[in-house]
Design brief:
heterodimer, A: alpha/beta, Rossmann fold, six-stranded mixed beta sheet, 10 strands, globular, B: MetI-like fold, about 75% helix
């Protein structure tokens, strides 16, 4: 379960006030809203990368408001993938495990276990600048899933992809979410994406967050 | 079937021609300066100058102090450049401006400030642990004050050009911010680090004013290459002065070419 409760955030003229919404455990939540309305900021608050001025962040029934990002059990996929520029694909995927000090045999096993289903086995020795947009997103997804998070958050992961690839990755996201029993929160501008993926859809606007009925207008 | 082979000749464009002309005139001026200086000396003068014990000492001291300065400048530039690029805090504009002071001050004034600082009670206390005034450590400190300011500028620009996102992702994957910077940001900033150290090195090689005022120009002790040029000039030995100047040009060229070659590979 993901719950943002009465979240407030203020920087200069930009502010978010009293933002509350819940994505039930095991559900795929989609957050929509106009450009610049604060969707990414909310995601960053959820991940612990920004500290809210007020409010609480709950993950799986645990108040994580003051926990550091790495302790929240969140897999984060930013808009452009944000791959580590000097790491090869296998090192990207194994990064979290290496940070935790897992044995190298376990890291190799887990990297192979993710690379296969994501179709990136042949890319393991490549650097990010040798990858296409779709490949980058798959690698970013594998990297986020490697430490087995309970929650996956994705910031417009499909926006830079062409239509065919977008459908492929959307299908992949949906199956991964079910397979790994993840609670997901996905930011998008696309109603089609929301309809395709979202069990529950929210819209962020000046007045706060409203849940949109599953049959989108 | 005919195949169209595009002409390799480019159409004349006055815009690019004017730009190339300006660059060409400037380059010709630089080459004329170097050519005129080189024409003033002979290989014999070079060998004679390089055979002098004092000048060999000055070369070795210059290379050693510039290397030390480059490393120290990088050590300072990494945290300060990161702070300026990523930090949000009150007084940032003031800190930013203050760090440029060594760049805009006349070099002699930097030396004078150092000399006066080490006459204060605090400065004297430092001198009792590490003597700086009129010592080799003073040469490094005088070079460092100016070289570090350039290194900080370079590292700040480097960090500003790197997206903070990968670092943030690393934090969500279990890293503290310091570890994320170490594991993700610094490897990505290696070209900038190399450039910052090179700029500090090159700037230090030509440093003269602060060294003269703060560390002195004592032969076989605190004499570096720019000091040699000045000392030889002051006794009328123009040939040795020119030979050492050309040696500095050669060293600078080696560094610039190394920066280009290594910078592309790093």
């Amino acid at each position: 379960m993901i719950r943002l409760e009465n979240i407030a955030w203020r920087v200069g003229a930009f502010h978010l006030e009293n933002i509350t919404f819940t994505v039930p455990a095991g559900c795929y939540g989609v957050l929509m809203g106009a450009t610049g309305c604060g969707k990414t900021t909310l995601l960053e608050i959820l991940c612990g990368l920004r500290q809210p001025a007020a409010g609480r962040v709950w993950i799986g029934g645990r108040d994580v408001t003051h926990e550091p990002p790495g302790a929240r059990g969140i897999g984060y996929v930013p808009q452009d993938g944000a791959l580590f520029p000097t790491y090869r694909v296998r090192e990207q995927i194994g990064f979290a495990l290496r940070v935790r000090g897992e044995p190298s045999a376990e890291i190799t096993r887990r990297v192979a276990g993710l690379a296969g289903p994501l179709g990136i086995e042949h890319l393991l020795d490549r650097l990010p600048h040798d990858l296409s947009g779709g490949e980058r997103q798959r690698v970013a997804l594998a990297r986020a899933l490697a430490p087995r998070p309970a929650v996956l958050v994705l910031d417009e992961p499909l926006s830079a992809l062409d239509e065919e690839l977008r459908d492929d990755i959307a299908t992949l996201l949906s199956s991964l979410q079910r397979e790994h029993a993840l609670t997901a929160l996905h930011i998008t501008h696309s109603r089609r994406e929301a309809a395709q993926l979202g069990d529950v859809t929210f819209r962020l606007a000046a007045g706060g967050v409203a849940e949109i009925p599953s049959a989108l207008p | 079937m005919s195949t169209h082979v595009p002409s390799r000749r480019r159409r004349f464009d006055p815009f690019w021609f004017v730009l190339a002309l300006i660059a060409g005139v400037y380059l010709a001026f630089l080459l004329a300066l170097l050519g005129a200086t080189a024409g003033y000396t002979t290989p014999g003068h070079w060998l004679h100058a390089l055979a002098a014990r004092e000048i060999r000492h000055a070369i070795a001291l210059s290379l050693a102090t510039c290397l030390a300065t480059a490393l120290l400048s990088l050590l300072l530039a990494l945290p300060v450049g990161y702070l300026l690029a990523r930090g949000r805090f009150r007084g940032k504009a003031f800190l930013d401006a203050a760090l440029d002071i060594p760049i805009v001050l006349p070099p002699m004034v930097v030396g004078l400030c150092l000399l006066i600082f080490f006459q204060t009670p605090f400065g004297r206390a430092i001198e009792r642990v590490v003597p700086f005034t009129y010592t080799v450590a003073g040469v490094v400190l005088a070079q460092f004050v100016i070289g570090a300011a350039f290194a900080v500028r370079t590292m700040r620009g480097t960090f500003e050009h790197l997206s903070p996102r990968p670092e943030e992702v690393a934090m969500t994957l279990g890293c503290s911010r310091a570890r994320a910077v170490w594991l993700v940001t610094l490897p990505a900033a290696r070209r900038g680090m190399f450039a910052a150290a090179s700029i500090a090195w090159a700037r230090s090689l030509g440093e003269f004013g602060p060294i003269l005022v703060f560390a002195g120009a004592t032969r076989m002790k605190t004499e570096v290459l720019p000091t040699t040029v000045w000392l030889e000039l002051s006794v009328g030995n123009l040939e040795a002065s020119v030979a050492v100047s050309l040696l500095m040009v050669a060293l600078a060229m080696v560094v610039l070419v190394a920066v280009r070659i290594v910078g592309e590979r790093v």
